[in-house]
Amino acid sequence: MKNFMIAQPQSIEEAVSLLSAKKESYYLMAGGTDLIGEIKDNIVEPDVVVDLSSLPNLSSIKKEKNGVRIGALTTVAELAEDRMIKEEYPGLHQAANSLASPQLRNVGTVGGNLCQRPRCWYYRDSEVKCRKKGGSRCYAYRGRNRYHAILGGGLCYIVHPSDLAPMLIALEAEISIHSDKGEKIVPLEDFFVLPKTNVHKENVLEPGEILTEVRIPASQTGDKSTYLKLKERGTWDFAVVSAAVKGTLSKGAFQNIKIVLGGVAPVPWRMKKAEDMIKGKKAAEDLLREAAREELKEANPLEENGYKKDLVETVLYRAVLSLM
Ligand SMILES: Cc1cc2nc3c(=O)[nH]c(=O)nc-3n(C[C@H](O)[C@H](O)[C@H](O)COP(=O)(O)OP(=O)(O)OC[C@H]3O[C@@H](n4cnc5c(N)ncnc54)[C@H](O)[C@@H]3O)c2cc1C
Ligand code: SF4
């Protein structure tokens, strides 16, 4: 592990001015549960780690008229334990509770969870220079690919590891990003990028930018949400496949519904075709399975991960029916 300096800015203004001066030699750190692992394994070699933990006012959950604002430094445990979140956004409560172990939830932050790096074992091996790390090959494509993407792959077959991201997208969350140019608001769905857009990154954050807040629109009467995560092990684990569902139920049918899958693609995967098939109809297992199959027409499984197609069908019908 290479030696590095730590900077501890005391305000967002100080942080962004530090970042704009340092250009690309810095790495941001919130809880450090992902970044420290990457540094120890020599996956990244920062000159300066910018520790965001002393930034004020970024670790609260505030309910306002238009919705909820969640500071990027709010820990996953704080999110999971928040009573208002549990009552008004049960799917988000479930997603936060499903994530990692209590120790990791106590330290890991919401912003860090959305910005965490891939778990592909070739990416995490410092000896392997795959395409994501500037090499010319994806070793998962013809290698061990049991946990990799069945949708949206191509140049790189990572799956986005975040449990919060699919649920927050289904809830139509936006994020706030600060830089020396000021603040911008981005729909979370537009934050993540496919490898064909940029194989080296998982999101649109540019050097010098900090994710500072997540905003969720106010919950409406009749809104329902759930997060269902299929894991290989009973204890903590990343999702093999997960489904985040949010909809408004009226007379046994969803008038609007948002479904986002985790564990199947390099980005949280919005099931737009399936949503269109389900909208306004009485949800039943047959219809939901058919909707999943329609979405999966563009799936492109690798040698070891075709089983994920069956899991998508199962997770979709179970998640949607649990809301009826
Ligand atoms: C054993 C283990 C099991 C896990 N299981 C799960 C799981 O089941 N589900 C799941 O979703 N996650 C899981 N994780 C990932 C974990 O949730 C994340 O490591 C954690 O949420 C990241 O938060 P952090 O604050 O520690 O991020 P850090 O490690 O500090 O940062 C992670 C990345 O995000 C960047 N970053 C952090 N904050 C910001 C910000 N505000 N703006 C811009 N960039 C930022 C950092 O530069 C870094 O690249 C697991 C991790 C481990 C180690
Ligand atoms: S899936 Fe992506 S991170 Fe994994 S080996 Fe292929 S290019 Fe590298």
What proportion strand?
15-25%
How far the N terminus sits from the C terminus, by CA atoms, comes to: 52 Å
Ligands = flavin-adenine dinucleotide, iron/sulfur cluster
Q: State the helix count.
A: 12
Q: C-alpha Rg, in Å?
A: 19 Å
How would you sum up this structure, described in words?
The structure is a single chain. The protein is of the alpha+beta class. It has helices spanning 12-22, 35-40, 76-81, 83-88, 90-98, 102-107, 110-115, 164-170, 188-191, 272-278, 285-295, 307-321, and strands at 5-7, 26-29, 48-51, 61-64, 67-71, 174-179, 182-187, 210-217, 223-230, 241-250, 253-262, 269-270. The chain has a five-stranded antiparallel β-sheet with strand order 4-5-8-6-7. A four-stranded antiparallel β-sheet has the order 9-10-11-12, sandwiched between helices. Helix 10 (272-278) packs antiparallel against helix 11 (285-295) and helix 11 crosses helix 12 (307-321). It is globular and about 60 Å long. The model has no long low-confidence stretch (mean pLDDT 96). The protein binds flavin-adenine dinucleotide (FAD) and iron/sulfur cluster. Iron/sulfur cluster (SF4) is lined by residues 118, 120, 122-123, 130-132, 138-140, 148, 156-158.
